[in-house]
Amino acid sequence: MSNPTAAISSEPESSSSDSFMVLWSITAPQKTFLADRLPDYKAALGKKSLPEFWDTLFEDWFKRWPSKDDGRALVEEQLKSWMVTNNRWHITTKQRKFLTDRIPDYKSAQAKKKLIDFWPFLYMHWFDRWPATEVAPQGLVEKKLKAWYNNNVCVTASARQVLNLNKPAKRTRRPAAAQTFCKVYWSKPLPDGTVLRNTIAAEWVAAWQKSKKFDPQIDVPCVAVNFINKVARCIFLKQLPPIHEEIEQHPDQLKHDNSEGSPDPGDEAEDDEVKRALEYQAAIDAIPFSIEQAGAQIFKQSGLISLTMVAGPDPKQGGNLLIYSYPYGLTPSGQSFIHHTEDFKANFEDKFHQFAKMVF
Q1: Which of 117, 154, 192, 297 can bridge 288 by disulfide, Cβ–Cβ 3.0-4.6 Å?
Q2: What secondary structure letter does DSSP report for 324?
Q3: E strands within the chain?
Q4: Domains of the chain by residue range
């Protein structure tokens, strides 16, 4: 399952960093409620009795947090997504050492573009030590192993570009009216009582269920930026004149300079939005290598170690609020600040994530 962690987009509001789809937030009591039932979920997986588990889970959930009938199906989809995503694969200290010891082989294969030869070798030795189980089948573990290397090895073949931090800012253009409409009415009820974020969520789930890639055992993917733009534009066009007038007078529509005779953006602005998202994504992909190089130069020229943290909407994840931490500097035993610090995620990343949600 794709991991719809974090929150959606820099324009609409952000949700929590839990594993709910980007269009749904989760409170601390709800997270505790679900976490307490993870053992039951794992047991139901082993006994192949998931239908009974879901019935019980939904009944207990809606007793505590009632939902309108038209929103119940979406909530049930999200509960399933949370359970599947948070039934995560955890590695032991020995397994982490096994993977870490093979990072040089991974980098070498990556540089030679021969990862196709690296993976079978890795899988063979892994399953010799830790055979696959029903709860952690071989196919799932292989995907997790690939994800581990992608997340723990900064330099990748697609991320060797370095950010140009001295590039002058471009003049901004007026966003499409539908994009301003999406920002204004993301969580605000429309005259007919519907909420844009809920409508988009429902349509995304419906589109996913009709797609060739649909699998009831796979989590609902994150909503794509172009899908949000498309649905928001269709809904905006159906609105009555007062809504159109409100959007036309919104500061976002008035503050940008269109004095050079350029046409009203409309569809062109929507294309610009997609282009801008692609530019952002290219820069985001370059961040790991860029920061690694910066950390190396800082250490080489000043003897100082560093810790860099970045957060913000990620177009590749449908606008999810991502957060990355990049340490430079190791202890004699080979530990970075992240691995040396107890509860680094809770003490640093989670707090930075909360701050980032206020920014975006």
Answers
A1: 154
A2: E
A3: 306-314, 320-328
A4: 18-153, 177-255
Q: Answer yes or no: are the C-beta atoms of 219 and 225 closer than 8 Å.
A: no
Strand partners, 306: 328
User: Which residues are paired to 327 by β-bridges?
Assistant: 307
- How much is the pTM? 0.32
Residue 49 token pair: 């009795």
Question: Measuring CA to CA, which residue among 89, 82, 5 is closest to residue 36?
Answer: 82
Provide long-range contacts, Cβ within 8 A and 24+ apart, for 29-37. Answer: 30/65, 33/60, 33/61, 33/64, 34/79, 34/82, 34/83, 34/86, 35/86, 37/83
CB 88 within 8 A of CB 5: no
Residue showing tokens 């019980």: 56
What's the CA gap between 297 and 278, in Å, rounded? Answer: 28
CB 31, CB 24: distance < 8 Å: no
Distances (CA, A) of 138 to 272, 322, 326: 43, 28, 31
Q: Taking a C-beta distance cutoff of 8 angstroms, is the pair 187, 13 a contact?
A: yes
Q: Own/partner pairs for 55-58, CB < 8 Å, 24+ apart?
A: 57/83
Write the single-letter amino acid at 23.
L
Are 27 and 45 within 8 A, CB to CB? no
Tens of pLDDT along the chain (360 residues)? 443 333 333 333 333 333 333 345 678 788 888 878 887 887 787 777 888 999 999 999 999 988 777 678 888 888 887 787 666 666 777 888 888 888 888 888 887 777 887 888 888 888 888 887 665 677 778 878 887 887 777 544 444 555 565 554 454 566 778 888 888 888 889 998 888 888 888 888 888 888 887 877 777 777 777 788 888 889 988 888 888 888 888 776 666 544 444 444 444 445 566 666 667 777 777 777 778 778 878 877 888 888 888 888 876 666 678 887 888 877 766 677 887 788 888 888 888 888 888 887
Tell me how far apart the alpha carbons of residues 265 and 275 are, in angstroms, rounded to a whole number.
Answer: 14
Cβ neighbours, 10 Å, residue 140: 14
